[in-house]
Amino acid sequence: MFDFRDIEVIRAIVRQGGFRAASDATGIAQSAISRRVRHLEDRMKIKIFERDGRGVRLTAAGRRLCDEAEVLVAQRDHILDELTQGVMAGVVRLGVAETMTHTILPRMLTSLRARHPQLRFEISVDTSGQMGQELANDGLDVVIMLRDQAPCGINLTVLPPVGLGWYVAPAHFTLPSPAGVDDLAALPIVSFPKGTIPHRRVIELLSPGRKQAVVVHGSASLATVLHLVGQGFGIGTIPHDIVAAWPHAGLEEIAVLPDAQLPDLEFAVCYMPERNAEIGREVARAAVETAIY
Questions:
Q1: Is 255 within 8 Å of 174 (Cβ atoms)?
Q2: DSSP assignment, residue 172?
Q3: Which runs of consecutive H residues, i.e. helices, occur in the chain?
Q4: Starting from the edge strand earliest in sequence, which strands make up the sheet with 155-158, in order?
Q5: pLDDT for 261-279, tens place per residue?
Q6: 157 and 270, same structural domain?
Q7: Same domain? 206 vs 274
Q8: ∠184-189-190 over CA atoms, to 5°?
Q9: pLDDT digit string, tens, across residues 159-191
Q10: Helix and strand counts by DSSP (H, E) for the chain
Q11: Are 147 and 190 in the same domain?
C-alpha cells in the first residue's frame, strides 16, 4: 500500500510547507515528488493534500495518515537502533525439561532479564524427546533437555550433572539399609514418563532375571511424583535438588547398594547452529553460570 519512502516524502512536504521546498530539502525532483504523492493517493483512494494559492495543506485523511506513519517511523528507528547497537530483543521460544524448572530456570531467566530486558520468553515444559523434535522442526528456539535425547546436528552446552536418588515416605514403607535391587523391585515405583531415558534406566536396572514385571508408574510432572510418593503410593526416583526444594513433602532418600544406584541426569542447552545462535549462546551462558552458582 505504501512504504517508508512514501512516508518520508509526505513528512518533507508537511515540514517544508510545500512540494518545491520539499524538493530542495530532499534533493528529489519536484515532479518526482508530485508523481509519488499522486500515485499514493490513487493506490489508497484518499486525498492526502489540498492545494490552494498559498501552497498545500493536509486533508483529514492526510493528517490521520501522517499521525499513524509517525508511529511506524518511530518503531522502525527503534528496531534499527536495537540492531545496530547489539540490543537483543523479541520473543524467545524456550523449551525446558521439568527438572530444570525446579532448579536453574528461575535464576537463569532472572539473569537473562537483567542483561537483556527487552527479551520476552515463551516457555514450554515437555519431555526431552518431544522438545527435540520441536527444536529440529523450528517449533522452539532453544531447549534445555537431556543430552542423550538431543537431535543430530545441534549445538549443545552440557550442564553440570543432576543427581538422582530413590526416595520414600518412611511412614508408608520400611526398607533395609542399604536396600538392594530386589528390595526396590518388590515395591511400586513412580518415575519419569514412559519412553524417557530415566524411565528406561529404572526398568533396565530392576528387570533382569525376574519372572514378574516390575511395576513402574510414569509421570511427566515432578510435583505429582512428589505427592504420590509422599502419600505412600510407592517409592520414587527423584532428583536430589527437587526433594531439597520441597522439604514439606517429608521424603527421605533410600540408602542403596552400589548396584541399585541411579546414574546422574545430564542436561544440555541445545539450539540449531543455522538459527538462533546468538540467543542460544546467551541462554547457555546464563544456564551454566546459574548451575554452578
A1: no
A2: T
A3: 4-16, 19-26, 30-44, 60-84, 98-101, 105-115, 128-136, 181-185, 197-206, 222-230, 240-245, 277-291
A4: 119-125, 90-96, 142-146, 267-271, 155-158
A5: 999 999 999 998 888 888 8
A6: yes
A7: no
A8: 145
A9: 999 999 999 999 999 999 999 999 999 999 999
A10: 12, 12
A11: no
